[in-house]
Design a protein that fits this description.
With 160 residues, the chain is an alpha+beta fold. Helix content is 22%, strand content 34%. Strand 2 and strand 3 form a beta hairpin.
Length: 160
């Protein structure tokens, strides 16, 4: 069972993980003069950081997000590939609700959000950083999210 201890907002360009800073720099480069990049501006093969630790989600509503791509090296309390599923489909509903809330904020604010998440999973420390960034076809509506995650401490039974 996932139990949130704390979630600390981190200014994205000061994230303590260099790979998340690089991912944010990529997002900024790809948006150019726009407020947000378009999906076609982002090439997951050229990102070059966080291999297997990237998600791409369709933003269906501020309370529903479908994983189009779920990184192969990511961890979650359900220990399953979430590709094609939504954030509501997590068996661990507390984890799913937290993820949905965070992504909903990115969708509504149309700006990147970086969080340092401290939790326990079945009583074992579970800590990571998540950076979520909006994508938009028209520079107004957020239709997709690009998300990177960097582990700090993850229970070994979650590692693939």
């Amino acid at each position: 069972m996932f139990t949130l201890i704390s979630e600390e907002r981190v200014i994205p360009n000061t994230a303590k993980t260099p790979q998340l800073r690089q991912l944010l720099d990529y997002w900024k480069e790809r948006r150019g003069a726009r407020r947000m990049p378009r999906r076609e501006d982002v090439d997951l093969d050229e990102i070059g950081v966080l291999p297997g630790r990237i998600h791409l989600l369709d933003a269906l509503s501020p309370t529903e997000f479908r994983y189009r791509i779920y990184g192969t090296n990511l961890t979650n309390p359900d220990r399953r590939d979430m590709t094609g599923l939504t954030t509501r489909d997590y068996n661990d509903t507390a984890f799913g609700a937290m993820v949905t809330r965070h992504l909903g904020e990115v969708m509504m604010q149309a700006t990147p959000l970086c969080l340092h998440i401290r939790a326990t999973l079945d009583g074992i420390a579970y800590e990571y950083y998540r950076l979520a960034m909006p994508l938009s076809p028209d520079d107004v509506s957020v239709t997709m999210l690009l998300v990177g995650s960097e582990r700090v401490t993850v229970p070994t039974h979650l590692l693939r």
